């Protein structure tokens, strides 16, 4: 062999060894095993060829010599009984090689285990799961989302929720354990990483996931990170062929169009600020409405399902709506996936169209075998109520303030007044630039401390028809903002008591845990913003049509939810069943989905203020003039 060839061989061997060193623990163990085998073969060959053996003169074969060498490689004490200096010399060399190899092996295994444990602690190991839900980014909404998914997962086998955010894995696990509580049969897996990075996303096995929820992170530019995360998911070169089911949260409406372009039909977009603003406005005009939305979004009560109902094909929608005893038909999803809520009663169900139904669970959705029984003589003619100008007061301000003011302008009668009072740095500039939708809607603003009793007295609060209290969430933490809201609500309660009249108050809360404290203020309704966004994202991850359904429910051009006097629909001088109320609503082009019936002795375990959605339609119930019917209507 030439000198050049020998040099190339050594360089190649060194290259392979260096590459194995970089490959990890398994490769290093392989190299050490190879060294041991080489030493054993050389020693065995030398002993068998030279005839060197123990002093007892017994012949030494290659196999016997290899076994003797192996024993001395593995255990240094084995050579203690050797005889003959020649044999002892060979055994000593083999033993020294064994000491080196096994010391290195123990060190390699120890380092490998330590590195693996460190990798697990940091949350960088790959997730090997199927049909799991992935949550990307971290925000206050994550705890409510996990709580809802835990309820939804109870009927599934081995459900898993995988969370990835730029936080320490152990810190995430401890915080979830402290704030979520009972996980039932669901297991939470946390990983640390950047959800916008393709390598980090691959750790979560998105190709085998059931759904993906992308939260708006607590950063300076959250919408950009959400859009980039969705972009990484849908454009991953190694992505699956089947479409993903993505529910993404966007705060600013201006970024919605870009997000929709990126996500396409694989993504449902939840516009958080827009959703909260519309529900705040609707709830301020109809006490108890936020409880209706919470019930429809909460997995613990009645939910909205979109499913095939072959028994409805060929039926007009009006007749189909009266075909259920324990469910409420509210719309149709056509063959192109477009949602139609409260369609014309004469619209016929076509083959391939899905029914949109409110039910306690999908197993309870069954068409009744018997026709519905209605007391038609209890149905009253339509009552037309004239709208009058309204006075609305907003106390407090945040980034949703302009959206709320604009949304409010769409519903009030000409001649209405909106007064806004707050003291945030940007408030005066934003309030002065508000342009009401319609010349008959005027806006007034005051820069005051909304927690001050003297400042509130100067506003003459009892003269307003509706009062909205917004949290200062842009400049304070959730707890601080809710604390100031509570102080304002307590002041309003005292003002109402002193005036001897009821003041209609709806308040925005940030943290759901503060709602119980706020109930002592006797406000009419509380809109818990983080909770509603969480419920919406959780529902959208399970129902691919949910974002569009709620988009129409909250759109002024679509069918919306109203609470109206039940005595306008049916006679209340006798008990009636809900089939009768539903028929009365259908004759007005509306769908009755429930009622609000408040009694001192009635249990309200779910804290819904007497709201019942999707009641059993055959039960006979007595109502009075204060009870309300919940309908889906176009005006």
Describe what this molecule looks like in 3D.
This protein is α/β, with parallel strands linked by helices and 635 residues long. Among the domains are: 11-122, Orthogonal Bundle (Helix Hairpins); 132-265, NAD(P)-binding Rossmann-like Domain (Rossmann fold, 3-Layer(aba) Sandwich), CATH 3.40.50.720; 391-533, NAD(P)-binding Rossmann-like Domain (Rossmann fold, 3-Layer(aba) Sandwich). Helices cover 40% and strands 16% of the residues. It has 20 helices and 20 strands. It has helices at 3-23, 25-50, 62-74, 85-122, 142-152, 169-180, 198-202, 222-234, 256-263, 272-285, 289-297, 317-321, 401-409, 427-432, 453-458, 478-499, 515-518, 529-542, 546-553, 578-587, and strands spanning 133-136, 160-165, 187-192, 211-214, 246-250, 267-271, 303-308, 328-333, 339-341, 354-359, 391-395, 417-422, 442-447, 466-469, 505-509, 525-528, 560-565, 591-596, 611-613, 628-633. The strands form four sheets. Strands 3-2-1-4-5-6 form a six-stranded parallel β-sheet, with helices on both faces. The chain has a six-stranded parallel β-sheet with strand order 13-12-11-14-15-16. The protein has a four-stranded antiparallel β-sheet with strand order 7-10-8-9. Helix 1 (3-23) packs across helix 2, helix 2 packs antiparallel against helix 4 (85-122) and helix 3 (62-74) crosses helix 4. The longest helix is centred in the first third of the chain and has 38 residues, at 85-122. It is elongated and about 120 Å long. It starts with a helix and ends with a strand. Mean pLDDT is 84; it is low at 1-5 and 13-23. The chain crosses the membrane at residues 21-47, 89-113, 134-152. One of its GO terms (cellular component) is endomembrane system. It is found in: Endomembrane system. This is Castor and Pollux protein voltage-gated ion channel component. Keywords: Ion channel, Ion transport, Membrane, Transmembrane, Transmembrane helix, Transport.
């Amino acid at each position: 062999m030439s000198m050049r060839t020998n040099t190339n061989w050594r360089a190649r061997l060194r290259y392979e060894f260096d590459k194995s060193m970089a490959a990890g623990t398994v490769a290093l163990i392989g190299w050490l095993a190879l060294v041991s085998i080489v030493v054993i073969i050389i020693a065995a060959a030398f002993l068998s060829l030279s005839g060197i053996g123990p002093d007892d003169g017994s012949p030494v074969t290659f196999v016997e010599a290899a076994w003797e060498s192996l024993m001395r490689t593995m255990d240094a004490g084995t050579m203690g009984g050797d005889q003959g200096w020649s044999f002892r010399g060979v055994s000593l060399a083999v033993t020294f090689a064994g000491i080196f190899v096994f010391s290195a092996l123990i060190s390699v295994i120890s380092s490998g285990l330590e590195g693996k444990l460190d990798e697990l602690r940091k949350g960088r190991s790959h997730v090997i799961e199927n049909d799991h839900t992935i949550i990307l980014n971290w925000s206050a909404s994550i705890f409510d989302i996990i709580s809802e998914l835990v309820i939804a997962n109870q009927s599934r086998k081995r459900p898993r929720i995988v969370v990835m955010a730029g936080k320490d894995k152990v810190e995430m696990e401890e915080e979830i354990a402290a704030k979520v509580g009972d996980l039932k049969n669901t297991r939470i897996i946390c990983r640390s990483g950047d959800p916008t990075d393709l390598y980090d996303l691959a750790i979560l096995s998105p190709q085998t996931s059931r759904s993906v929820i992308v939260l708006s992170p607590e950063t300076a530019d959250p919408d950009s990170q959400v859009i980039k995360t969705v972009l990484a998911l849908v454009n991953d070169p190694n992505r699956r062929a089947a479409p993903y089911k993505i529910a993404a949260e966007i705060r600013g409406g201006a970024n919605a169009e870009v997000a929709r372009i990126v996500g396409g039909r694989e993504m449902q977009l939840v516009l958080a600020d827009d959703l909260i603003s519309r529900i705040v406005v609707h709830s301020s005009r109809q006490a108890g409405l936020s409880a209706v939305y919470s019930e429809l979004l909460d997995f613990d009560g009645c939910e909205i399902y979109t499913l095939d109902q072959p028994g409805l094909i060929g039926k007009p929608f009006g007749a189909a709506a009266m075909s259920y005893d324990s469910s409420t038909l509210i719309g149709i999803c056509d063959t192109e996936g477009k949602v139609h809520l409260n369609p014309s009663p004469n619209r016929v169900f076509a083959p391939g169209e899905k029914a949109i139904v409110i039910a306690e669970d999908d197993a309870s959705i069954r068409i009744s075998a018997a026709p519905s029984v209605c007391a038609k003589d209890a149905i009253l003619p339509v009552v037309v109520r004239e709208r009058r100008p309204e006075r609305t007061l907003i106390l407090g301000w945040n980034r949703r303030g302009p959206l709320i003011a604009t949304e409010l302008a769409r519903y009030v009668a000409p001649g209405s007044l909106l007064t806004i009072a707050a003291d945030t740095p940007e408030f005066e500039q934003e309030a002065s630039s508000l342009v009401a939708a319609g010349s008959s809607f005027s806006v007034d603003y005051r820069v005051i401390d909304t927690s001050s009793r003297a400042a509130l007295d100067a506003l003459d609060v009892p003269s307003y028809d509706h009062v909205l209290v917004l949290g200062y969430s842009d400049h304070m933490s959730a707890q601080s903002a809710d604390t100031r809201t509570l102080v304002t609500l307590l002041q309003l309660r005292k003002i109402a008591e002193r005036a001897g009249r009821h003041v209609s108050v709806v308040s925005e809360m940030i943290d759901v845990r503060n709602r119980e404290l706020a109930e002592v203020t006797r406000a009419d309704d509380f809109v818990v913003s983080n909770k509603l966004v969480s419920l919406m994202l959780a529902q959208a991850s399970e129902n691919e049509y949910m974002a569009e359904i709620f988009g129409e429910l909250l759109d002024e051009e679509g069918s919306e939810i109203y609470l109206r006097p039940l005595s306008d629909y049916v006679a209340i001088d006798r008990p009636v069943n809900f089939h009768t109320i539903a028929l009365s609503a259908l004759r007005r082009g509306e769908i009755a989905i429930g009622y609000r019936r408040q009694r001192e002795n009635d249990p309200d375990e779910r804290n819904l203020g007497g709201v019942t959605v999707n009641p059993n339609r055959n039960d006979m119930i007595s109502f009075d003039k204060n009870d309300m019917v919940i309908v889906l209507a176009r005006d």
